[in-house]
Design goal:
The complex is a heterodimer of chains A (174) and B (523). Chain A is mainly alpha-helical and 174 residues long. Helix content of chain A is 75%, strand content 0%. Classes of the chains: A mainly alpha (174), B alpha+beta (523).
């Protein structure tokens, strides 16, 4: 466990210390991945885009002014890449149905949940995904998404209610 | 179930999320003891929380493996960067333009006469300084790169004394499109098709920004509604002023010394003189030449051009459906409109307005689920930065409201409210809403059955009506009232937005009359 601050680690990275960048990957990759998953809604694509974001972060780290802002910076890079990805996908396969999130073995209950999460609009899926990846801490999500704490709570609340509606609607349809 | 239950449901969701304060927890628990319906709801959400936890933790289990893959990719990239300096240099030199640029570097001449650099640097930035600086610009060199820093799009623009594009060159490698315009002839080269097409320069024009000084002048004329400025920021490690073109949603960075843009959206700009030969038309060896200039002998077109023509024909068919659909929507035949928009999209899935109007037609026909589904698809596909996105959120918000999904409606409306308030004073901000509401508007108003944009008074009245539907507020705007009274009403809307901005969806709000256009008498 490396207890150096992000600022110190970024400083080391600026001097081409790739081992130092590994510290940043271990510390921040899961948040980057969660963001990509929340925006894109597909595990495999989220993995690709998150990797691209971490790689881009390494290539551009000398341009990061303040090392303590690494997390906000890398999340912004990831978000921009997600937007690019969605645009590219729109061009290649316009508006076709997306592949759902997949979490290992699929039971029927799990499948329903996957479908419902996938059907949530992006602005609800993102905070919900980050909530479950972030130790269920709404305050952290607010910081990471650069929104107010009450805004984060509101979105998680709405996401839960909408998800419940989707799951119960599905149950009634069958 | 009682009247508190709706409010309690919000709190139950917060209770499950652990975001409820202690006194509220007690109140909710007390309610749950008394209310079986809410108890069931709480159990269901609790169960879903368990499923979600399990679902995401399964995805989370592979995290270490993912991190390792990322680290391996980073190592590979690092090794290749250290050992491959030569190959990077070689790749860059593959660009024809870069070869010319390298040769020209020896005779590099700065086209700008910047004699007041030191003085300007210490002054506050004003956009008119950029307009002024463009008067001295003779060349622009504009480059867009991909993530690996390879050039994807490179353009050289010669600016004439009149401030507009003269000669032009475009090398867009990611679209396999190369264009040279020497003011007599335009050569378009498609290397993937091994074809060169020659046009008379009066018939075709490719451009990046045709008159850059004029664009910035229009921005300056538009005032603070059009742009914001943040001085003394950093752009990729360089000092810069950040100019945000609000309506176009584009970030521009200005060099504090020259007052000229160094970045515009995805493009980076410099102002060096174009290398000799940049604008020279050279037909690549072995290319099939299709000469479309007047007087040129007739020639056989290659297969791909014939295919393109067929595609254009299909495009015309799609356009026919699109026009039918527009007229049907304007005439109130919503089912026919939705069908015809659907046919348009089958042929041309990228027609965003067809998606929007199909959503609106479905909403107006009462098929709210289909409207929400279609609008959600296009919103997700377009991304939040698209210019027309406010009208999509507004339309979906109304559909959610009609379906009784008020929380979702609010989320959509919250997104568009700032643009709507802005639209009370800014025609461009309002125009996306005006176009969405009236499918018969066409840009010049000259096509048969079409008309132009609404007048300022009409546009404001329509925006007031939209605002009344989503806020339930009425600040006394009257299209027949005095300019002073209406100015006060608009100021009241702005103050309301600044101080409260509370959304209260009120679909039955009484609209204000939209003034008729009075045709000017022909003398």
């Amino acid at each position: 466990m490396d207890d150096r601050s992000d600022e110190n680690v970024v400083q080391a990275c600026r001097q081409d210390d790739t081992a130092a960048y590994a510290v940043l990957v271990k510390r921040h990759y899961r948040h980057v991945f969660a963001l990509c998953l929340g925006v894109i809604g597909n595990v495999h694509d989220a993995e690709d885009v998150a990797q691209e974001a971490m790689l881009k972060g390494m290539l551009k780290i000398k341009k990061l002014g303040r090392g303590e802002q690494y997390e906000a910076w890398i999340l912004q890079i990831a978000k921009n890449l997600c937007i690019d990805f969605l645009r590219r996908r729109k061009r290649v396969k316009p508006l076709a149905d997306e592949q759902p999130m997949q979490a290992g073995q699929t039971t029927k209950e799990n499948h329903d949940l996957q479908q419902a999460v996938r059907r949530l609009p992006q602005e609800l899926r993102l905070p919900l995904t980050m909530y479950y990846f972030d130790g269920k801490n709404a305050k952290k999500i607010a910081e990471r998404l650069n929104i107010s704490h009450s805004g984060a709570c509101q979105r998680i609340r709405t996401a839960r209610k909408e998800l419940h509606k989707l799951l119960t609607e599905r149950g009634q349809d069958e | 179930m009682n009247s508190d239950c709706d409010h309690i449901k919000d709190q139950i969701a917060d209770l499950i999320s652990g975001t409820l304060s202690e006194p509220q927890v007690q109140a909710v628990e007390q309610h749950l003891e008394e209310c079986p319906a809410c108890r069931d709801y709480a159990r269901a959400l609790q169960n879903e929380d368990g499923l979600l936890t399990e679902f995401f933790s399964k995805i989370d289990t592979n995290m270490t493996g993912r991190q390792e893959r990322v680290l391996k990719a980073i190592n590979r990239s690092f090794v290749s960067r250290q050992g491959d300096t030569y190959s990077i240099g070689r790749t860059i030199m593959k660009s024809r333009i870069s070869k010319l640029a390298a040769a020209a570097a020896i005779i590099f001449v700065v086209a700008l006469s910047i004699t007041v650099v030191d003085k300007l640097t210490s002054e506050a930035y004003a956009i008119t300084q950029t307009v002024e600086a463009f008067k001295n610009v003779r060349y622009m060199h504009v480059v867009r790169r991909d993530k690996a820093w390879n050039i994807q799009d490179e353009r050289w623009i010669e600016i004439g004394p009149d401030g507009v594009q003269a000669r032009y060159r475009q090398d867009t490698s990611d679209r396999d499109l190369y264009v040279v315009d020497d003011r007599q002839t335009v050569m378009v080269h498609h290397p993937d098709k091994n074809t060169v097409i020659l046009y008379d320069a009066n018939d075709k024009c490719w451009t990046w920004i045709y008159a850059p000084g004029k664009v910035f002048q229009e921005l300056a004329d538009g005032g603070p509604n059009y742009y914001t400025v943040k001085e003394n920021v950093q752009y990729k490690g360089r000092p810069a002023h950040h100019l945000r073109w609000v309506i176009a949603d584009i970030d521009i960075y200005i060099d504090p010394e020259t007052r000229l843009p160094i970045a515009h959206g995805d493009y980076e700009i410099d102002y060096e003189e174009a290398p000799e030969g940049t604008f020279e038309i050279v037909i690549p060896d072995g290319a099939v030449v299709v000469d479309k200039r007047p007087g040129a002998p007739p020639c056989e077109e290659p297969e791909w051009m014939i295919e393109e023509k067929k595609k254009k024909e299909m495009g015309k068919i799609a356009q026919g459906y699109f026009e039918d659909a527009r007229r049907a929507l304007a005439g109130g035949d919503y089912i026919k409109a939705a069908e015809s928009f659907s046919k348009t999209i089958e042929i041309q899935p990228g027609r965003n307005w067809a998606w929007l109007w199909m959503g609106i037609a479905l909403y107006k026909s009462g098929d709210y689920d289909a409207a929400i589904y279609r609008l959600s698809k296009i919103i997700d596909a377009m991304g939040e930065r698209d210019l027309t996105i406010p009208s999509y959120h507004f339309a979906r918000g109304l559909a959610y409201q009609a379906k009784g999904m008020t929380d979702m409606a609010r989320l959509d409306i919250e997104k568009v409210l700032p643009k709507m308030i802005l639209g009370l004073r800014n025609r461009k901000a309002a125009s996306t809403f005006d176009l969405a509401d009236d499918p018969l508007i066409c840009a010049d108003g000259m096509r048969e059955g079409c008309h132009g944009m609404p007048t300022t008074e009409q546009s404001i009245a329509m925006m007031i009506n939209r605002l009344r539907i989503i806020t339930g507020q009425n600040f006394g705007y009257d299209p027949d009232g005095s300019a002073e009274e209406n100015e006060q009403a608009i100021a009241a809307w702005e103050e309301w937005y600044e101080t409260s901005g509370e959304i209260k969806l009120t679909p039955d709000a009484q609209p204000v009359p939209v003034p008729e256009v009075v045709e000017e008498e022909v003398k």
